[in-house]
């Protein structure tokens, strides 16, 4: 149950671990000079907006994030992490065609 103390402790631990991981990834990304451009942030926000009208999107921003500036910073942080993972971690994991074929054999 959500109200059980054990659940609340586990939830707090997971949240703390997520925040620590995010901070570490962003710190490493900044050391690697990974900084999303304003256009990349704007593009990601347009993608997030999807089919919402501007009015509905702004209402959701206010409800979930308080302000457009806060949301923009969240998107910027998300892009920093995504770009860092794509440029460093994902490149370090090389899977050959042969390995992929072997994995998907039935």
Give a concise summary.
This protein has helices at residues 5-31, 38-49, 54-65, 68-92, 97-104. With 106 residues, it is an all-alpha fold.
Provide a descriptive summary of the structure in words:
The chain has 5 helices and no strands. The chain has 106 residues and is mainly α. Helix 1 packs across helix 4 and helix 2 crosses helix 4. 6% of the residues are buried. The model has no long low-confidence stretch (mean pLDDT 89).
List keywords for this structure.
mainly alpha
Topology:
Layout: H1 5-31, H2 38-49, H3 54-65, H4 68-92, H5 97-104
Helix pairs in contact: 1-4, 2-4
Number of strands: 0
Principal-axes shape call = extended
Structural category: mainly alpha
For the largest beta-sheet, the strand count, sense and barrel status come to:
none
